[in-house]
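stuck on whats below:

***
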Amino acid sequence: PTNEEADADPILQGEVDLGEIVAETLALELDAYPRKPGESFGDHLESGDEPAKGTSPFAALSSLKST
């Protein structure tokens, strides 16, 4: 199929699925990285970064462990 045919929405039994067309259009119009003007991401991890060393959220559970 040509690019034009690939982009065409299917017509099944004389009907077009408008819900799917609207959902696709809205998804394409959304900003991929929304944020307020002037705001920064602050502390965040990039892939490959090590998380900050600190107490584990499960550290308190170790005191409940029977020895």
In short: Helices lie at 3-7, 18-29, 59-62.
